[in-house]
Amino acid sequence: MTSGQGDLQELKNLGAASVNILRAIGINSYDDLKAVGPVTAYKRIKARGINVSKVMLYALQGALTDTHWNDLAPDLKAKLVEQAEHESEVEPS
Questions:
Q1: Alpha-carbon distance 72 to 31, whole Å?
Q2: What are phi and psi of 13, to 5 degrees?
Q3: Which CATH architecture has domain 8-86?
Q4: CA dist., res. 57 & res. 41, Å (int)
Q5: Residue 79 pLDDT level (bands cut at 50, 70, 90)
Q6: Angle at Cα 16 formed by Cα 18 and Cα 71, nearest 5°?
Q7: Interior CA angle at 61 toward 27 and 45, to 5°?
Q8: Strand, coil or helix: what is 35?
Q9: Is residue 82 helix, strand or coil?
Q10: Is 74:61 a contact under the CB 8 Å cutoff?
Q11: What are the two backbone dihedrals, phi and then psi, of residue 38, each rounded to the nearest 5 degrees?
Q12: Which residue, among 83, 74, 54, 63, has the nearest Cα to 12 in the 3D structure?
């Protein structure tokens, strides 16, 4: 699945726990995740005090591109981490 209002759990890398976390921050579909983007979604999760690793950031990116998180290019992973750590503004959820 790559678009539409379908269930988040159908996306690659996202299991029940990840889907519950995303719903807790107001992301309920692929379209929601795409609109927010993986970095902002990750930062919202962290801002809620939910303890997740950088793998969650990679998983969110992979969910949008139908790519297993471990198959993302190392430079893309580094860019995502840099954006998540150095952009201080978190949009409200």
A1: 21
A2: 80, -10
A3: Orthogonal Bundle (1.10)
A4: 8
A5: very high
A6: 55
A7: 45
A8: helix
A9: helix
A10: no
A11: -65, -35
A12: 63
**Burial (CB count within 10 angstroms: exposed 0-12, middle 13-18, buried 19+), residue 56:** buried
pLDDT, tens only, 33-45: 999 999 999 999 9
Domains of the chain by residue range:
8-86
User: For residues 44 and 32, what is the distance between their CA atoms, to the nearest angstrom?
Assistant: 13
Inter-axis angle of helices 38-47 and 54-65, nearest 10: 150
In the predicted structure, residue 1 carries a pLDDT above the cut 50: no
pLDDT digits (tens, 9 = 90+) for 43-60: 999 999 999 999 999 999
